[in-house]
Amino acid sequence: MRQGLQRNARILAPKGQKQVGIATSGERGTTTTVVCAFSASGKYICSFFIFKKKRMNAQLLRGGNENMIAVVSESGWINENLFVDWLHNFISFAKPTKENPILLILDNHESHVSLDCYLLCRQSGIVLLSLPPHTSHRIQPLDLTYFGPLKSAYNRECDLYMAEHIGRRITQYEVVELFIKAFNRINNIEKAANGFRAAGIFPLDPTKFDDFFTTSTAQSETSFDNIQTPEDQPQDSLSRSVSLSDVVALPNLPQNTTKQTFRKKHSIIITSTPMKEVLEKKQQNKNKKEQTEITKNEKIETKTKKADGIDINTRHPLGWTALHTAAINQKVDVIKVLLHDGADVNAGDNFVNVYRTAMEMGLHSLDVLMKREEEFSDRLNNRATFQGFTALHYAVLADSKICVKALLDGGANPTVENEAGHRAVEYATEGEIKEMLIKHAIKYDEIVKEKEAEERRRFPLEQRLKQYIVGQEGPISIVASTIRRKENGWIDEEHPLVFLFLGSSGIGKTELAKQLAAYIHRDKRDSFIRLDMSEYQEKHEVAKLIGAPPGYVGHDDGGQLTKLLKKHPSAVVLFDEVDKAHPDVLTILLQLFDEGRLTDGKGKTIECKKAIFVMTSNLGSEEIAEYAMQLRAEAERLLNHRLNNTSDEDQEPERIEISRNFKDQV
């Protein structure tokens, strides 16, 4: 049922170089496999082409017809997966059922004996008979009357092609066209009927199988007289289907369950019940062997890269790391090696999605998609956004419990959120993985709180702020004590914290708000919202803050403040130069400062009671400057007085303080 069509790279002839494509059964050159099948009545199923390529190209079917099917493989030969694909094609043509099964005869090739093939045939009503090796030339109808003429016809078409196209090579793109011409030249009902007759299969000739029945342990319980001849029907050169009435009924052949039944030298009914256990064991051994080999190679490759001085956290040009790749492909052994060698377990993926990444990097989206599928994973939605995904996120998407456990044991933070604000547990289905993530998240939160409390004791907030702000000890002390009360729960949780920083430009009001956000939210970019209130000097600018009302342009865009607060309701919000805003804008802020909620232009209420609001202003800066001049003059007077009165050297110097009257009035 299979014939290899090969294109030899170069054949030297006495009068020069001659490049040809020939039909052969040898494994040399560039192989294109063609799977053929016909029934006892002479009906042919359209050919199934297997090209030696990595990716399918529509041009490979040039010159074919709409019923042709083509796939690709690295070797050009059939394998277990491709044979299952061919079986699906065969089922669509033959339409077998369990009530009216079809006998399918083929040679004992390794690709035909698999668990997937067994399950598909049992489900579809196909009885699969595998012939012993080196016997197909005697009892395979295709080999007896079909493949010989097909080879000759195909080679003749190659000669005609080269005569018409002098100097051109026969490539894979010409194979289908040449094969179809050869196929149509030799295709007829007589060849199929004569093949079954010569093999002794139909009409059944027991004398053809004397040696076969002697060596086989299978016995027939059906009389040869019960086998009926299918009706003669007219047949086109290429048929779309095979009728069930055209297939000979299969005698009941109970199988002996001894080990000798499944030796390669015997014919095997692959779809028999005793074969299931054998095929399952074979599949398990194959999977185990492949997994062991892959894991071994991956470990060697990882250790080699480390020995060569390659950074284990090096990113792919499109943004992911080796740990991300191991997690999504469920390579638990590789994950352990990477973590042992210092891989960043909480590093996020910089890959956004196919189209966004292609646009940012100036690449074609198809190139990005191919790299993503070939070098990362082809199981992910190419339209989804993956920016910020950690290895734990990918392990959860892969639904791999052992990978999730390995990452958690390696220090993965289950509370890390991606750019969309989702934790890994939100991508987990109900089950052990979700429960494991929830338990680790609770433990991790407790550990983090203990570490933060210890860190606050050793390095108070005042010291942190003084690293960035010179002077201003009074304001820093007030802000730090207020934040400590909030951390210890000594505040009214129904109302947000509101600060008002007054003073001249350049003394650190804005910087104090920034450092406050960095301390509370650990340098998260969305944790600090800054609004320059000088942009809201007009009455209609209120719409920019909370969003335009329904019916106006920009209604769906949302407000500059409400949109950011909805995304991060516990942020530190800075209203810079609040005195320059229109009074109606300040009226909107009353609800925000009093109850910690804000209603946007769409009528939706945003709760932000955990947020911290900071207002800055230059109000009173002139009065403060004038009073500062008075303080400097007073300090200079006291200094001169001490210099002139040496007898007062032992006295404690007077301190310059802001008067109570200035504090109350200004």
Automatic annotation (TrEMBL):
Keyword Nucleotide-binding appears in the UniProt entry: yes
GO biological process, alphabetically ordered: cellular response to heat
Region span, Disordered: 220-241
Coiled-coil ranges (or none): none
Domain of life, per lineage: Eukaryota
ANK repeats: 318-350, 387-419
Residue stretches of biased makeup (Polar residues): 220-232
Domain AAA+ ATPase span(s) in chain numbering: 495-639
Pfam families for this protein: AAA_2, Ank, DDE_1
SMART domains in alphabetical order: AAA (SM00382), ANK (SM00248)
GO cellular component: mitochondrion
Keyword terms: ANK repeat, ATP-binding, Nucleotide-binding
GO molecular function: ATP binding; ATP hydrolysis activity; nucleic acid binding
PANTHER family: ATP-DEPENDENT CLP PROTEASE, MITOCHONDRIAL DISAGGREGASE
Protein known as: Caseinolytic peptidase b-like protein
Organism: Lasius niger
